[in-house]
Amino acid sequence: MKTFGQILKEIRRSKNVTQRELATEVGVDFSYISKIENDHMSPPAADTIVKICEVLGVPPDDLLAMTGKMPTPIREAISEKPAAQQFLREAQTMTLTDDEWSALTQQLKKLR
Amino acid sequence: MKTFGQILKEIRRSKNVTQRELATEVGVDFSYISKIENDHMSPPAADTIVKICEVLGVPPDDLLAMTGKMPTPIREAISEKPAAQQFLREAQTMTLTDDEWSALTQQLKKLR
DNA sequence: ATATGTATTGACATTCAACTCAATATTGTA
DNA sequence: TACAATATTGAGTTGAATGTCAATACATAT
Q: Does the reported pTM lie above 0.85?
């Protein structure tokens, strides 16, 4: 099982980007990137992960999933919707399986 | 529209509990309860809200919804489930209505 | 009225995530 | 080899969230 840092390092290298370049574009210190890549620090905030992925041109989903963090837009969407919160409470008490979550994602698409 | 503090104060009084009693049982300083009730501080952490509601014998849902905060168990359930995160990403891009969320909650119950 | 329980207020404390800065080491290249 | 680019490391910073503590004010029953 690869770590967050390992995966990030692989992606960055595969894109021929230096830590400094990445850091500059993302707006953080380059030493921070180094520590993340070597797993000397916990993964960055969700929004920073998203920026990193944008700069590297890859979807953020996998890296986000590894950290269990939610980007601000999603967090806010839930915060503002009591109905969504209720849904999540139900879902939690039921401890849904991955398949069940997928099924719900399908249901989602049917709504529109 | 009532504030978090106002509602908490009403509930506490309706149960004939003093701030000190509540604070002691919840495990916080009584002055903190006072500030919350008078809206001199932002609402407590989600888990503290849950404890408060347990002590007062009311469901935490309404107060939680007012703050948009998620209790640890729910947060963790989502964090650990990439499939759940995927679902939420989809849901966010679709900006579901309250009714649609309710519909999904219904779907949930059908699953079992 | 005063004593006692109850509530409020102001200032300060703690914790943690999420970084930055400066120094040092490593790697690649001519 | 030696120089420049790149990466690593250690220590410190910052801001937000979540409270505590001590002092003061208010309320209420006797």
A: yes
